[in-house]
Target: Malate dehydrogenase
Amino acid sequence: MARNKIALIGAGQIGGTLALLAGLKDLGDVVLFDVVEGVPQGKALDLAELAPVAGFDATFAGTNTYDAIGGADVVIVTAGVPRKPGMSRDDLLAINLKVMEQVGAGIRKYAPEAFVICITNPLDAMVWALQRTSGLPAMKVVGMAGVLDSARFRYFLADEFGVSVEDVTAFVLGGHGDTMVPLVRYSTVGGIPVPDLIRMGWTSAERIAAIVERTRNGGAEIVNLLKSGSAFYAPAASAIAMAESYLKDKKRLLPAAVRLDGAYGLRDIYVGVPVVIGARGVERIVEVDLDPAERAMFEKSVASVEGLVEACLKIAPDLG
Ligand code: APR
Model:
């Protein structure tokens, strides 16, 4: 059986890490695409030279033309520019929206059967735009944010309780930004919900509130430490988990930004909710019960995503 093909659009910090993880996890052959000449080729060669040491047979190709992504099974998009000092949110939106137009056209032409995972920020608006510009079915175009946000939440909880990260489950709803909704009630250690652990004296409500806040600011915390650039290891690993669930039809239940067309009372908006990812893409959207406080936080988060989409539509009305 032929190996799967994974196309990475954007060969920057996350793109390079995605390629490395795809190789190490034997997910398939990798094509790195970037507009900068030499960078995808250089990273591909470096990774090909790593393969004999790590012991896998995937091939790596670097390219500056879209035809090389032809027939890809999975496309992961990190193309774009990060926000720089002095740049407004709308400036960033305008630049990355243009990038999504180019990337969408490339996917539409050369990889229309692929499962597409967008990572470029502002995430919820960019994945919405990418689904529009690529013309792929919504169940095949998702945004990676929830796996990362919940991984951060899980790590902080495991650290608080002094237990293995493996035994902590957590999930985060809503947009990828400081309005995200980490759901304490649905987060557990070995199956025990966090509110029960508070009652059992393992921690306090105040400490959990601080962890929720740290999760919301998880991206900014790393940006402040790195000084230039943003997180890349955990974002790459998160997208790879989603790609693996699709390629191996694992049907994992993961939080992802998906287009809602009725679920949660919302329509035609991409926002983070729990979904089942399998060979057909997004196979199921899971609608969990929200209490009034959670619903209010979720609605606030949705409103902020709607604001971003409106800003996109002002710049590119034809996407409407
Ligand atoms: N087409 C393809 N690639 C592009 C384009 C384009 N039109 N415009 C820029 N790029 C490439 C850049 O040349 C760069 O190599 O996208 C890459 C982005 O890489 P980095 O700047 O290293 O950013 P990275 O840390 O990988 O993050 C990528 O993910 O988490 C988000 O906010 C983050 O939007 C950012 C994205």
